[in-house]
Amino acid sequence: MVKAIRVHELGGPEVLKWEDVEIGEPGDGEIRAATMPFTPGMEAVGEVIAVGPGLTGRKVGDLVGYADNPMGSYAEEQILPANKVVPLPPSIDPIVAASIILKGMTAQFLLRRCFKVEPGHTILVHAAAGGVGALLCQWANALGATVIGTVSTKEKAVQAKDDGCHHVITYKEEDFVSRVNEITSGKGVDVVYDSVGKDTFQGSLACLKIRGYMVSFGQSSGTPDPVPLSALAPKSLFLTRPSLMQYTTNRDELLETAGEVFANVASGVLRARVNHTYPLSQAAQAHADLESRKTSGSIVLLP
Q: What are the residue boundaries of the Enoyl reductase (ER) domain, all occurrences included (predicted)?
């Protein structure tokens, strides 16, 4: 038996229960990893403690990480498909890796493949001080792009500047569409990375240049209203709704994505802010503190 956070009913943090669970033995093509069932959590780093029969390429003692499906990382151990885990370079602190693997891989596919940001591009990042937003700003700045970020407070504006934003818009104090128009001298931006959704979607479209790319990858403010195709026609805009799963459909894509993230962490291009750690058994408290805005940066649960 191992311990895991289990959810038996919908609700607030109080439904996260610390319980005994039966993990079982890994089967063909699977591993069992420490720190890793409905059990929430979709990213983790841990040590391989058992491997299924006939498996090659992974061995007991390896440090590995995973992000996205399958869900279930709020557990001391978890059975995972071996092709879903990536090796952790010895140069990367496991706690840092756990805090950045999902957000970093998301930033990688958004910046390097969904729309390939290059020197000279001007980009708009909403929620620039958020988990993914901060990494987008850091990485895009290193790629030579001009980065415009939106934030909700002056404190977050300071962080966004530190993360490489050349222009920061505090959207509660100024209209971000007007400011983007001013910053770009009316030309608009090459791409918008929008994780906010309903509240920013139409404005994001208005910020784009001719043949610009609208990348809607989140909806923290709610689902955007439907958009008729005709709304894209005046500027021949591109619109995409991507997900990490569709950009890591095979082993090579997964390894390339994770490898580039880890390389940029090692070189200092990407910086994680691990401001809080909690015992895994206190996941409910971590969620409660997160909801009440008592935390900032990344939270890591330690088994």
A: 11-301
**Both tokens assigned to 182:** 């001013």
Same domain, 45 and 159: no
Residues 6 or more apart in contact with residue 118 via CB below 8 angstroms: 143, 144, 145
* CB contact at 8 A, 29 and 52: yes
Query: What is the rounded CA–CA span in Å between residue 213 and residue 204?
Result: 10
Q: What is the C-alpha separation between 197 and 217, in angstroms, rounded?
A: 8
Q: Return d(Cα 297, Cα 281) in angstroms, integer.
A: 20
Which CATH number goes with the domain that contains 36?
3.90.180.10
Q: Which two tokens stand for residue 70?
A: 């399958």
What digits encode the pLDDT tens for the residues 41-58? Answer: 999 999 999 998 888 888
Considering only CA atoms, which of 205, 206, 213, 209 is closest in space to residue 242?
213
Write down the H helix ranges in 152-282: 154-162, 176-183, 201-207, 244-247, 251-267
pTM for the full model? 0.88
Of 190, 183, 139, residue with least CA distance to 163: 139
> Does 42 share its domain with 74?
yes
Containing domain of residue 113, as a range? 100-246
- Taking the CA of residue 111 as centre, how many other CA atoms within 13 Å lie in the half-sphere pointing to its CB? 31
> 215 with 82, same domain?
no
93-113 pLDDT, tens digit each: 999 999 999 999 999 999 999
| Tokens standing for residue 278 | 């909690």
Measuring CA to CA, which residue among 105, 116, 96, 17 is closest to residue 67? 105
Q: Are residues 137 and 202 in the same domain?
A: yes
The predicted-structure confidence for 131-154, as pLDDT tens digits, reads as follows 999 999 999 999 999 999 999 999
**Total domains in the fold of the chain:** 2
Q: Which residue has the tokens 């792009």?
A: 145
262 within a domain of the structure (yes/no): no
Helices 131-142 & 154-162 angle (0-180, nearest 10): 40
In terms of domains, do 11 and 56 share one? Answer: yes
